[in-house]
Amino acid sequence: MTPPATIFHSLSEAETADLARRLGLCLLAGDTVLLSGPIGAGKTHFARALIGSLLRVPEDVPSPTFTLVQTYDTRMGELWHADLYRLTDTAEIDELGLIDAFGTAICLIEWPDRLGDLAPDDALTVTLSPDPDDAGARHIGLQAVDARWPHLLEALT
């Protein structure tokens, strides 16, 4: 049974980035974060802030929309940022090398629905939803079934 999501209400892009940075500092090699939400929900903004919190030397963090995957050497080891929006078949996941990366790197996956059954069971799902009453605000749900995550989620609140 999947536990209920821990919900954060972010009033601004800065608050969303702050949550992403705090989460980033808790991640270890082998952790996968699935970033869900509609176009414009802030998935890439969240990923950029998280990645930036782990970089040894600041650098530009482009969206991997066209490259599909960007990799980074971080203080916590290798990090893979994937945007799977353009994938049409789950066979492409293996071609990208993501299956192997799930076990060895920190993986941030935008559009994780494209993974199908290949999504790691121990992943943390972050769901971003725009607030219909405030264009800059977001509802951010964090949810996982693996025993590693509840303590981490509690620390973020």
Number of strands: 7
Q: What class would the helix/strand composition place it in?
A: alpha/beta
- Biggest sheet details: 7 strands, mixed
Distance between the termini: 22 Å
**What's the helix-strand series?**
EHEHEEHHEEEH
Mean pLDDT: 91
Return Rg in Å. Answer: 15 Å
What is the 3D shape?
A: globular
Low-confidence stretches are: none
Strand content: 25-35%
Helix content: 25-40%
Instruction: State the helix count.
Output: 5
- Biggest sheet strand line-up: 1-7-6-2-5-4-3
Can you describe this structure?
This protein has helices spanning 13-24, 43-54, 91-96, 98-104, 149-156; strands at 6-10, 32-36, 69-74, 77-83, 106-110, 124-131, 134-143. Helix 1 packs across helix 2. A hairpin with a 2-residue loop joins strand 3 and strand 4. It has a seven-stranded mixed beta sheet, with helices on both faces. With 157 residues, the protein is of the alpha/beta class. The two termini are 22 Å apart.
Summarize the structure.
The chain has 157 residues and is of the alpha/beta class.
Q: Which features characterize this protein?
A:
157 residues, alpha/beta, seven-stranded mixed sheet, 5 helices, 7 strands, globular
SSE order and pairing:
Elements: E1 6-10, H1 13-24, E2 32-36, H2 43-54, E3 69-74, E4 77-83, H3 91-96, H4 98-104, E5 106-110, E6 124-131, E7 134-143, H5 149-156
Parallel strand pairs: 2-5, 2-6, 4-5
Antiparallel strand pairs: 1-7, 3-4, 6-7
Helix pairs in contact: 1-2
